[in-house]
Amino acid sequence: TNNKKFIVVFVLGGPGSGKGTQCAKIVEHFGYTHLSAGDLLRAEINSGSENGTMIQSMIKEGKIVPSEVTVKLLQRAMNESGNDKFLIDGFPRNEENRAAFEAVTGIVPEFVLFFDCSEEEMERRLLNRNQGREDDNIETIRKRFRVYMESSLPVIEYYNLKGKVQKINAAQPVEEVFESVKGVFSKVAA
Ligand code: UP5
Ligand code: MG
Protein backbone atom coordinates (compact mmCIF):
# COMPACT_ATOMS: atom_id res chain seq x y z
CA THR A 1 0.00 0.00 0.00
CA ASN A 2 0.99 3.65 -0.23
CA ASN A 3 -0.28 4.42 3.27
CA LYS A 4 3.17 5.43 4.41
CA LYS A 5 2.72 8.81 2.75
CA PHE A 6 0.10 9.59 5.35
CA ILE A 7 0.91 11.91 8.24
CA VAL A 8 -0.91 10.87 11.39
CA VAL A 9 -1.22 12.58 14.76
CA PHE A 10 -2.90 10.53 17.49
CA VAL A 11 -5.10 12.68 19.74
CA LEU A 12 -5.48 10.99 23.11
CA GLY A 13 -6.84 11.82 26.54
CA GLY A 14 -9.61 10.67 28.86
CA PRO A 15 -13.33 10.66 28.14
CA GLY A 16 -14.46 14.29 28.04
CA SER A 17 -10.94 15.74 27.99
CA GLY A 18 -11.85 17.79 24.87
CA LYS A 19 -10.38 15.73 22.02
CA GLY A 20 -13.28 16.34 19.61
CA THR A 21 -13.62 20.02 20.50
CA GLN A 22 -9.93 20.75 19.91
CA CYS A 23 -9.71 18.60 16.76
CA ALA A 24 -12.43 20.73 15.13
CA LYS A 25 -10.28 23.81 15.76
CA ILE A 26 -7.06 22.16 14.55
CA VAL A 27 -8.82 21.26 11.28
CA GLU A 28 -9.74 24.93 10.70
CA HIS A 29 -6.20 26.18 11.28
CA PHE A 30 -3.86 23.42 10.11
CA GLY A 31 -5.59 21.53 7.27
CA TYR A 32 -5.83 18.10 8.83
CA THR A 33 -8.75 15.71 8.38
CA HIS A 34 -10.32 14.75 11.72
CA LEU A 35 -11.12 11.06 12.21
CA SER A 36 -12.78 10.25 15.54
CA ALA A 37 -12.68 6.49 16.06
CA GLY A 38 -15.71 6.77 18.33
CA ASP A 39 -17.67 8.71 15.68
CA LEU A 40 -16.75 6.11 13.03
CA LEU A 41 -17.94 3.31 15.34
CA ARG A 42 -21.21 5.16 16.08
CA ALA A 43 -21.74 5.69 12.33
CA GLU A 44 -21.17 1.96 11.82
CA ILE A 45 -23.94 1.19 14.36
CA ASN A 46 -26.31 3.58 12.57
CA SER A 47 -25.50 2.13 9.14
CA GLY A 48 -27.00 -1.18 10.22
CA SER A 49 -23.74 -3.07 9.74
CA GLU A 50 -23.51 -6.68 10.88
CA ASN A 51 -21.09 -5.57 13.62
CA GLY A 52 -23.48 -2.86 14.81
CA THR A 53 -25.01 -4.75 17.72
CA MET A 54 -21.60 -5.85 19.03
CA ILE A 55 -20.21 -2.30 18.76
CA GLN A 56 -23.25 -0.82 20.47
CA SER A 57 -23.01 -3.12 23.46
CA MET A 58 -19.27 -2.53 23.84
CA ILE A 59 -19.74 1.26 23.82
CA LYS A 60 -22.56 0.97 26.34
CA GLU A 61 -20.15 -0.94 28.62
CA GLY A 62 -17.23 1.40 27.95
CA LYS A 63 -15.23 -1.49 26.50
CA ILE A 64 -12.76 -1.31 23.63
CA VAL A 65 -13.97 -2.66 20.27
CA PRO A 66 -11.55 -5.20 18.67
CA SER A 67 -8.96 -3.45 16.54
CA GLU A 68 -9.79 -5.34 13.36
CA VAL A 69 -13.08 -3.43 13.26
CA THR A 70 -11.67 -0.02 14.18
CA VAL A 71 -8.53 -0.20 12.03
CA LYS A 72 -10.61 -1.10 8.99
CA LEU A 73 -12.90 1.91 9.54
CA LEU A 74 -9.91 4.24 9.99
CA GLN A 75 -8.15 2.90 6.89
CA ARG A 76 -11.26 3.30 4.78
CA ALA A 77 -11.80 6.86 6.02
CA MET A 78 -8.18 7.80 5.31
CA ASN A 79 -8.28 6.37 1.81
CA GLU A 80 -11.60 8.06 1.00
CA SER A 81 -10.65 11.48 2.39
CA GLY A 82 -8.37 12.70 -0.39
CA ASN A 83 -6.17 14.29 2.29
CA ASP A 84 -2.80 13.02 3.53
CA LYS A 85 -2.81 14.54 7.06
CA PHE A 86 -4.97 13.05 9.79
CA LEU A 87 -5.89 13.62 13.38
CA ILE A 88 -6.87 10.22 14.73
CA ASP A 89 -8.96 11.01 17.80
CA GLY A 90 -9.56 8.47 20.57
CA PHE A 91 -7.43 5.70 19.06
CA PRO A 92 -5.31 3.66 19.89
CA ARG A 93 -6.94 2.90 23.24
CA ASN A 94 -4.92 -0.18 24.21
CA GLU A 95 -1.78 -2.04 23.27
CA GLU A 96 -3.70 -4.32 20.90
CA ASN A 97 -5.07 -1.28 19.00
CA ARG A 98 -1.62 0.28 18.79
CA ALA A 99 0.18 -2.81 17.53
CA ALA A 100 -2.56 -3.71 15.02
CA PHE A 101 -2.70 -0.22 13.49
CA GLU A 102 1.04 -0.15 13.01
CA ALA A 103 1.18 -3.71 11.61
CA VAL A 104 -1.74 -3.26 9.21
CA THR A 105 -1.07 0.27 7.95
CA GLY A 106 2.69 0.58 8.44
CA ILE A 107 2.03 4.08 9.82
CA VAL A 108 3.92 5.44 12.82
CA PRO A 109 2.43 8.64 14.30
CA GLU A 110 4.31 11.94 13.90
CA PHE A 111 3.47 12.67 17.51
CA VAL A 112 0.77 12.12 20.13
CA LEU A 113 -1.27 15.06 21.37
CA PHE A 114 -2.27 14.22 24.94
CA PHE A 115 -5.04 16.14 26.69
CA ASP A 116 -4.44 15.93 30.42
CA CYS A 117 -7.47 16.63 32.60
CA SER A 118 -8.74 15.60 36.04
CA GLU A 119 -11.49 13.01 36.34
CA GLU A 120 -13.66 15.47 38.27
CA GLU A 121 -13.59 17.96 35.39
CA MET A 122 -14.09 15.27 32.72
CA GLU A 123 -17.07 13.85 34.61
CA ARG A 124 -18.62 17.32 34.91
CA ARG A 125 -18.24 17.89 31.15
CA LEU A 126 -19.69 14.51 30.16
CA LEU A 127 -22.70 14.84 32.45
CA ASN A 128 -23.37 18.30 31.01
CA ARG A 129 -22.98 17.33 27.35
CA ASN A 130 -26.58 16.29 26.68
CA GLN A 131 -26.13 15.08 23.13
CA GLY A 132 -27.89 11.79 23.71
CA ARG A 133 -24.78 9.63 23.77
CA GLU A 134 -25.67 6.26 25.26
CA ASP A 135 -22.40 6.23 27.22
CA ASP A 136 -22.90 9.63 28.92
CA ASN A 137 -24.48 8.25 32.09
CA ILE A 138 -22.67 8.00 35.40
CA GLU A 139 -22.42 4.17 35.40
CA THR A 140 -20.88 4.01 31.92
CA ILE A 141 -18.71 7.08 32.59
CA ARG A 142 -17.13 5.29 35.58
CA LYS A 143 -16.43 2.24 33.38
CA ARG A 144 -14.89 4.47 30.68
CA PHE A 145 -12.60 6.05 33.30
CA ARG A 146 -11.47 2.62 34.54
CA VAL A 147 -10.71 1.34 31.02
CA TYR A 148 -8.86 4.59 30.28
CA MET A 149 -6.65 4.21 33.38
CA GLU A 150 -5.98 0.50 32.88
CA SER A 151 -5.64 0.22 29.09
CA SER A 152 -5.23 3.64 27.45
CA LEU A 153 -2.76 5.42 29.75
CA PRO A 154 -0.18 2.65 29.12
CA VAL A 155 -0.33 3.45 25.38
CA ILE A 156 0.39 7.12 26.15
CA GLU A 157 3.26 5.99 28.37
CA TYR A 158 4.59 3.81 25.51
CA TYR A 159 4.80 6.87 23.25
CA ASN A 160 6.11 9.04 26.08
CA LEU A 161 9.10 6.71 26.42
CA LYS A 162 9.72 7.27 22.69
CA GLY A 163 9.68 11.05 23.21
CA LYS A 164 6.56 11.42 21.05
CA VAL A 165 4.05 12.87 23.51
CA GLN A 166 3.03 16.53 23.49
CA LYS A 167 1.12 17.02 26.73
CA ILE A 168 -1.49 19.75 26.98
CA ASN A 169 -3.18 21.06 30.13
CA ALA A 170 -6.78 20.40 29.05
CA ALA A 171 -8.42 21.61 32.26
CA GLN A 172 -8.55 25.23 31.05
CA PRO A 173 -11.24 27.00 29.00
CA VAL A 174 -11.49 25.89 25.33
CA GLU A 175 -9.68 28.93 23.88
CA GLU A 176 -6.80 28.65 26.35
CA VAL A 177 -6.37 24.96 25.58
CA PHE A 178 -6.29 25.82 21.88
CA GLU A 179 -3.51 28.38 22.45
CA SER A 180 -1.37 25.53 23.83
CA VAL A 181 -2.40 23.28 20.93
CA LYS A 182 -1.44 25.94 18.38
CA GLY A 183 1.96 26.20 20.04
CA VAL A 184 2.53 22.48 19.53
CA PHE A 185 1.47 22.45 15.86
CA SER A 186 3.51 25.54 15.03
CA LYS A 187 6.61 24.02 16.64
CA VAL A 188 6.37 20.28 15.86
CA ALA A 189 4.46 20.17 12.58
CA ALA A 190 6.14 23.18 10.95
N1 UP5 B 1 -15.70 20.77 26.60
C1 UP5 B 1 -14.69 20.46 25.77
N2 UP5 B 1 -13.59 21.17 26.07
C2 UP5 B 1 -13.91 21.94 27.15
C3 UP5 B 1 -13.19 22.89 27.94
N3 UP5 B 1 -11.90 23.19 27.68
N4 UP5 B 1 -13.82 23.48 28.99
C4 UP5 B 1 -15.13 23.16 29.27
N5 UP5 B 1 -15.88 22.28 28.53
C5 UP5 B 1 -15.27 21.68 27.50
O1 UP5 B 1 -15.87 17.45 25.05
C6 UP5 B 1 -16.74 16.85 25.99
C7 UP5 B 1 -17.68 17.92 26.53
O2 UP5 B 1 -16.92 18.91 27.22
C8 UP5 B 1 -18.43 18.67 25.42
O3 UP5 B 1 -19.71 18.99 25.89
C9 UP5 B 1 -17.60 19.93 25.22
O4 UP5 B 1 -18.36 21.01 24.77
C10 UP5 B 1 -17.05 20.18 26.61
P1 UP5 B 1 -15.36 16.61 23.75
O5 UP5 B 1 -14.57 17.54 22.93
O6 UP5 B 1 -16.51 15.91 23.15
O7 UP5 B 1 -14.37 15.58 24.50
P2 UP5 B 1 -13.83 14.18 24.01
O8 UP5 B 1 -12.48 14.01 24.64
O9 UP5 B 1 -13.92 14.06 22.54
O10 UP5 B 1 -14.87 13.23 24.75
P3 UP5 B 1 -15.52 11.86 24.27
O11 UP5 B 1 -16.66 11.61 25.19
O12 UP5 B 1 -15.78 11.84 22.82
O13 UP5 B 1 -14.31 10.89 24.61
P4 UP5 B 1 -14.28 9.34 24.65
O14 UP5 B 1 -12.84 9.02 24.48
O15 UP5 B 1 -14.92 8.81 25.86
O16 UP5 B 1 -15.24 8.91 23.45
P5 UP5 B 1 -15.00 8.26 22.04
O17 UP5 B 1 -16.07 8.69 21.16
O18 UP5 B 1 -13.61 8.43 21.63
O19 UP5 B 1 -15.22 6.70 22.39
C11 UP5 B 1 -16.47 6.27 22.87
C12 UP5 B 1 -16.45 4.76 23.04
O20 UP5 B 1 -16.25 4.14 21.77
C13 UP5 B 1 -15.34 4.19 23.93
O21 UP5 B 1 -15.66 4.25 25.30
C14 UP5 B 1 -15.25 2.77 23.41
O22 UP5 B 1 -16.28 1.99 23.93
C15 UP5 B 1 -15.48 2.97 21.91
N6 UP5 B 1 -14.23 3.09 21.14
C16 UP5 B 1 -13.52 1.94 20.86
O23 UP5 B 1 -13.90 0.84 21.25
N7 UP5 B 1 -12.37 2.02 20.12
C17 UP5 B 1 -11.90 3.22 19.67
O24 UP5 B 1 -10.84 3.23 18.99
C18 UP5 B 1 -12.61 4.40 19.97
C19 UP5 B 1 -13.77 4.32 20.72
MG1 MG C 1 -14.91 12.70 21.20
UniProtKB/TrEMBL annotation:
Q: Which residues bind a ribonucleoside 5'-phosphate?
A: 42, 63-65, 90-93, 133, 144
GO:BP terms for this protein? 'de novo' pyrimidine nucleobase biosynthetic process; pyrimidine nucleotide biosynthetic process
Could you tell me what reaction this enzyme catalyses? CMP + ATP = CDP + ADP; dCMP + ATP = dCDP + ADP; UMP + ATP = UDP + ADP
EC identifiers of the protein: 2.7.4.14
A GO cellular component annotated for this chain's UniProt record is:
nucleus
**What keywords tag this UniProt record?**
ATP-binding, Cytoplasm, Kinase, Nucleotide-binding, Nucleus, Pyrimidine biosynthesis, Transferase
Q: Which PROSITE patterns match?
A: ADENYLATE_KINASE
Cofactor binding remark: Binds 1 Mg(2+) ion per monomer.
Kindly list the positions annotated as binding CMP. 97
This protein's assembly is summarised as:
Monomer.
Question: What the record says about its domains?
Answer: Consists of three domains, a large central CORE domain and two small peripheral domains, NMPbind and LID, which undergo movements during catalysis. The LID domain closes over the site of phosphoryl transfer upon ATP binding. Assembling and dissambling the active center during each catalytic cycle provides an effective means to prevent ATP hydrolysis.
Q: Which family does it belong to?
A: Belongs to the adenylate kinase family. UMP-CMP kinase subfamily.
According to its UniProt entry, what is the function of this protein? Catalyzes the phosphorylation of pyrimidine nucleoside monophosphates at the expense of ATP. Plays an important role in de novo pyrimidine nucleotide biosynthesis. Has preference for UMP and CMP as phosphate acceptors.
Question: What's the name of the protein?
Answer: UMP-CMP kinase
Give the species this sequence originates from.
Answer: Genlisea aurea
